[in-house]
Amino acid sequence: MITVKHLRKVYQNDGKELVVLKDVNCEIQKGEIISIIGPSGTGKSTFLRCINRLEEPTSGEIIIDGENIFDPDANLPRIRQKMGMVFQNFNLFNHLTIMENLMVGPMKLLKMSKANAEKQGLELLQMVGLADKANAMPSELSGGQKQRVAIARCLSMKPEIILFDEPTSALDPTMVSEVLSVIKQLAKQGMTMAIVTHEMKFARDVSTRIFFMCEGIIYEDDVPNEIFDNPKKPLTKAFINKIRTLEFKISDKRYDLHSMNGQIDTFCRKYSLSDYVVNMLQLILEELLENILPFTGEVVFDINYSEKDNDVIIKCLQKSCKFSILSNPQADELAVKLITGYCESITEDVCDDDARVIIMKLKDKRQR
Ligand SMILES: Nc1ncnc2c1ncn2[C@@H]1O[C@H](COP(=O)(O)OP(=O)(O)OP(=O)(O)O)[C@@H](O)[C@H]1O
Ligand SMILES: [Mg+2]
Description:
By secondary structure, the chain is α/β, with parallel strands linked by helices. The chain folds into two domains: 2-241, 3-Layer(aba) Sandwich (Rossmann fold), CATH 3.40.50.300; 246-367, Histidine kinase-like ATPase, C-terminal domain (Heat Shock Protein 90), CATH 3.30.565.10. The protein has twelve helices and 15 strands. It has a six-stranded mixed sheet with strand order 6-7-8-3-9-10, sandwiched between helices. The chain is elongated and about 80 Å long. The structure holds adenosine-5'-triphosphate (ATP) and magnesium ion. The site of magnesium ion has 3 residues, from helix 1.
């Protein structure tokens, strides 16, 4: 359905050349769901914008159903109609009602009658669970609701493929799942989609293939289980490892508890870990920081989630410590008992550079 050949995009920034897409090649078949992941600034949005012709590439070809979209004779309105795009910031027409947002495209561009556009609009609103909002203005909706309307509006043009550019990254954590649920429903219906996302659990569940973009190319392209559990190339390995781990360093007792709890929350959400896990992690870290660690030097936390084994492991490294932390009389006995109870295993080891490391594996996985 879509073939991309030697796509290259170079931006001029203050007279300097920035090669964003070096040589992107791929094929996307009808019915495929591609998630595009990769570090920030690697050209994921630029790539989607080129497919949609919002951006002119420097060179290369994009062929959609046999037609090169950069051909001067290409039928641009038809190409655009085939492809819907959903943006991070919804891009609704704020001065129109929800129903008008859904009617304007079909009436103006597909020449649909007003009655049919309205009928279709209602069906689409029902599909995304917002039939009662037809006459509301966008400003009256939550972010998650706006994004569902944006998806409905995109569907109103009867696209053959939908491109999503981080559809949930501007949303409050509580609203992410309602939007992902709509996208999953589209996946079940066989819609072809390319989705730039940071929601790794979602990408694994919904995609037929993952593109890992890096260094201006599709650096690794494989099925989700291979990319997440068995990446082949070094930069994919490093990326997957890094996103699986939340690390933070604390140098003294005046740490920022709220920032730490927020980071734990975001990290867990990325992998759809339950509130129970969030609470456990926050509790264990707080007990360690408040009542157990001697703060002989910097403390480094590593929280790692393995989707394969469904294990959450916390590593807590206390630098410049020459004694056992857990059996030290300074450590609050009750706090140690408490965290031991939350863990399937808890061990303490000496590191070679006079540091102690406590390794804890969370228990009660059923509750996730
Ligand atoms: N119109 C532009 N002019 C100049 N440089 C640009 C333009 N658009 C993007 N860039 C640069 O191109 C690079 C790639 O940007 P792009 O937005 O495609 O990355 P991305 O992978 O989507 O990143 P993120 O994950 O942060 O969204 C960035 O360094 C960005 O600053
Ligand atoms: Mg982007």
